[in-house]
C-alpha cells in the first residue's frame, strides 16, 4: 500500500483539481454576454479556501468515489457558495467592499451585474451537477437526490433562510439556541451538502453512514461559524481577506457577543472533538475528514 500524501499536499492537489474543474464548468469570457461571464469567473476563480470542495473530496475518498464525479459535485457546491457571497456583499445585504482579498463584485463591476452573477451561478451549479456521464443503472435516482439535497441546502430551509434570519436579527439579543439555528441554516446546510454529495458520488449510504456524516457535518458547520466570529473580532482585514470587525460594527449577534472570546474558542474546540467522535467507526479511512475538522477550527483566516 502506498503511503498517504501529507495533508498539505493532498489539500493543494484538491484545490488545483477543483480550480481546473471550475475553469472548465464556467462559461468562457469570450462567450456573450462577455461582461457577465467575466464577472462570474471573477467571483469564483482564484480565491477562497475551497473548504466545501475539500469536504466533498474527503467524503468521496472515504467511500471510494470517482474523482471526476466528485469534482462536478464539489464545483456545484462552490458555485452556490460563491453566488451567496456575491449577494451577501451587496449594499442591500451586508454592504462590503472586500472579499477574498479583492474588491467585491458589485464594487469591481456594478450592482446590477453582481445581482445577475449570483443568479447565473446558482443556475450554473445545478446544470453542472445535473450533467456528466451516465453513472450506470440505478444512478438516475441518486442524481435526483443529489440535486434535491443541493436545492434544499441552498433555499429558504437552508442557506437563504439562514441569511434572512441573519438580516432580521441585526440589533436583537438572540439566545444561543436561536443563533445556532440561524447558522445551521446559513452556513451549516451547504457544508453538510458538500459532505453528503461527495459521499454519494461513491456509493449508496447506509442509515449508519448518513447519521455519522450528519453528526460530523453538524459539528464542523457550527465550528466554522464560531471560528469566523472569533476571527472577525480578533484578526485584521489583510489576514482575513474581508473587512474585519464588521459584525460588531453592524450590531449583529455572534458567538463572541453572546459567549465572549474564551467560551467561543472553547466551543469551537468541543465541536472539533465532536466531529472526530462521529468518525470513529471509519478509523484511519476518515483521516482527511478529521484533518479538515482540525483545519476549520485552527485556521487563522
List the helices and strands and how they pair.
Layout: H1 7-25, H2 34-44, H3 51-62, H4 67-88, E1 98-99, E2 102-103, H5 105-108, H6 111-130, H7 139-154, H8 159-168, H9 176-200, H10 207-234, H11 237-240, H12 246-249, H13 255-259, H14 261-278, H15 287-298
Antiparallel strand pairs: 1-2
Helix pairs in contact: 1-4, 2-6, 3-4, 3-9, 3-15, 4-6, 4-9, 7-9, 8-9, 9-10, 10-14, 10-15, 14-15
What's the β-strand tally?
2
Structural shape: globular
Task: Return the structural class.
Answer: mainly alpha
Number of domains: 1
The secondary-structure element order is HHHHEEHHHHHHHHHHH
* Global Rg: 19 Å
What's the rounded overall pLDDT mean?
Answer: 92
Low-pLDDT runs:
none
Oligomer: single chain
CATH superfamily: Farnesyl Diphosphate Synthase
User: What is the helix fraction of residues, given as a range?
Assistant: 55-70%
**First-to-last CA distance:** 35 Å
Strand order of the largest sheet: 1-2
The number of helical elements comes to 15
Question: Might you state the CATH topology name?
Answer: Farnesyl Diphosphate Synthase
What is the annotated CATH architecture? Orthogonal Bundle
Q: What top-tier CATH class fits best?
A: Mainly Alpha
**Binned strand content:** under 5%
